[in-house]
């Protein structure tokens, strides 16, 4: 991430959007399955890449994990430290990761891979940080979803809502806007992620496309027509 990616300017709106409970995506789609992959597995130390205001770090701490949260946006780290004064939060990006080699048995990326310009370098750094036998757990936007940005849902010639995607195989940056937030994301086909992880010898342990929970009516219906997220767990061989 860099100073021109929109995150510094969008930080106040983002903090308002997330609040103390998290947005729709986190509360009703991702939190439960992400936590399910963590609970009861004897993880000791977790690194959260792109931790934002530290929400998921605090959730992991409640489950007995020692956490390190990194994010290049200073306003997020400042807020994380306010909410969790005893926590370990650092202003740095995944590409410049300074956590010692083989020091974590869990690395989490909760919707942060799409914000990283130099993904190969970031993956190299995170794999180095994992202990042998450690786990890389990620939630990410689906690649067909990022291929649809910035248009996404459109009206066709009959006035029906359709989800429009294009140029799927072309890696590129794209600016997205919602709720007063305007940031740069990165579209990459799924094969880019898979080849990177496999190239580092990681072993796929879990893949899921979670469905919404809770009574959110048309919001859930639209999500199920064009889901936004998948969850993957990769293991570093012992």
Describe the structure.
The structure is a single chain. By secondary structure, the chain is an alpha/beta fold. It has helices spanning 7-18, 24-36, 55-61, 74-83, 119-129, 143-146, 190-199, 218-225, and strands at residues 45-49, 66-71, 88-91, 104-110, 130-141, 152-155, 161-164, 172-178, 181-187, 203-208, 229-235. The strands form 3 sheets. It has a 7-stranded mixed β-sheet with strand order 3-2-1-4-5-11-10. A two-stranded antiparallel ribbon has the order 6-7. β8 and β9 (181-187) form a beta hairpin. The longest helix is centred in the N-terminal third of the chain and has 13 residues, at 24-36. The model has no long low-confidence stretch (mean pLDDT 95).
Secondary structure blueprint with pairings:
Blueprint: H1 7-18, H2 24-36, E1 45-49, H3 55-61, E2 66-71, H4 74-83, E3 88-91, E4 104-110, H5 119-129, E5 130-141, H6 143-146, E6 152-155, E7 161-164, E8 172-178, E9 181-187, H7 190-199, E10 203-208, H8 218-225, E11 229-235
Parallel strand pairs: 1-2, 1-4, 2-3, 4-5
Antiparallel strand pairs: 5-11, 6-7, 8-9, 10-11
